[in-house]
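User: Could you check the structure of this?
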Amino acid sequence: MNSNRHYLLLAGLLLLFALRADHSIKNKWVTIDEYIHLASGCYALSTGDSRVVPEAGLLSTLWPALGVKLAGFPLPSITEQVRPLWKQGNKLALSAAYMDPFGLELLSVLRCARRMVIIEGLLLALLTYYWSRKIFGLSGGLVSLAVFTLSPNFLAHTRLTNTDIMSTLFIWLAIASIWLVIKEVSWWTVPLCGLTIGLALLTKFSSLLLAPIAAIFVLLRLWNPRPIFVNFGKRQEVTGWNLCLVILFSALAALLIAMAVVWAFHGFNFSPSGGISPHLKWRFSLTDLGSAKKWVLLLRDYQLMPETWVYGLANTLKTTQMRGAFMKGEYRGGGWWYFFPFAFLVKTPHGTQLIFLLTLVCFVYWVKRGYRQYERVDPNQWWIPVAISTTVFLVTALTAGINIGYRHAFPTLFGLMILLGQCSTCLEGSKRLAKGALFFALAMLFIESLLIHPHYLAFFNELSGGPEGGYKLLVDSNVDWGQDVELLRQWIVAKKQSGDKSNFFAALFGPETGQPYFEVPQTTLLEPIKLSKAGRPKAIGPGIYCISAHILQGMTFRFGFYGAWDKRKEENYRKLKSQMELQTKEDVHLTRRFEIARIAKLCSGLKNKEPDGHVGYSILIFDLDEKELQELL
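Assistant: Sure, the predicted structure tokens are below.
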């Protein structure tokens, strides 16, 4: 390929990626994780204390917060009103104290923060290109870059202030730097390895998977009889036991540098309070940790790592053991081993799936042609760390107890996208059918990616039912993260301005204390955003019901109404309904339980009814008359 045309395509794909990500930010409201992650970063930037959400990764929250500061928006301060919340470490209340006063201006704040994440996405795209190019050449790099930049799933999270893009970036940079050390131990490879590992540890705790990956690299390297090069001013070869010692001391040096990087981001302070912080809920986080508990206590009690980092690790281990999950009408606490393969089938564009099949065909052809470089582990073969790391990430995903988002498979998908560059061999020679199939797949991917703009988070491929039916298959960050609340507000306002006299009722997924601006005439907010503070339930009647997909599938209901509707829930609902009818004095607790039961009952019926419309594919619209409403309740 002509070099000028090559770099023109490279620049065009990156520019298109950035422009589409930036344009899709408009009118996308704060998602449930952004609400606390961005506030956490702003508090950390303002106070130097990361106590709000330590499990989010300090670097992942600081970087978007820097965009807020550079734009001139005020950072939070610890006022007299906030101080009690600060001492308690109440992350939701602290987030509300900072985020809610912005009102609709929060969209401008979010845009500045999200543009910082777009920079992360561009760096990740470049890493995809460079790595694939190193293995498969120029054409392979462009194929991998096209698959990445046109991916609705990566586009969706490249414009959100969460941890997934940055963690994927630094985890794979760390993998590359570890492989460089395996190739040559030098004055720059070891510090680079320690630096990237340290930065990865500051983004997300899944970066701890670098340990088994590095161990596999070392074992494979020791299996190879070739010497390792050591270069500290003079390049020389090392073999035998000396090779083992070199690798051991390199690993220790990289580990110490990584720990120093983590300490540096925490100001080299174990804890802002000087000792074990009372605001951190250690008792809860250490419960049921199993064998991991002793390692967490070792890190904390001997102050080997900053306390908030260790607490974030403990809290992550605690909360990811089991999480309520939904898949295709089923509910399960520990998830399914096949959750991510299913998500790959329904949330991956058909164009990418076709390129995946072409890659498998090319790989088989490649092997049959007599390629035999698999016999020894050569550090110059950059497909090896990709294959090993992707396998480790895949096995971890299949055995994980948390199945709430396809985004958790991003490290696996990134490795896969690099390997998809293999199908660029279709462009070699005169294989017209193979060339045609590759160009057809890329064209299909381009069209699929354009059609879903700007609602990337809700992408589902056509064979799975498309984005309109995605809520029937998966929920949470796969389709509904609270991102379309502002679009709904605009839609309701437009309906009223056009003369629509209907009453509107909304049950929206998002921060429970958030959306204070959502005050639209004749619009009633139902559970879980605003429960009645009075002793009487909110009046509901015929009108237009706007239900978030996550709520429609029963994922947020408390008091025993979580999940699929069954006989026990029906009995509890009838009992609460009778108690409300017989109520003689106001009872706030009873009212709240009834309101949750009522919306859960309503959603159980609406799940079997096709919606009359949608807003951004994540909020379903149902127009109900009096008869339909009574039948549902």
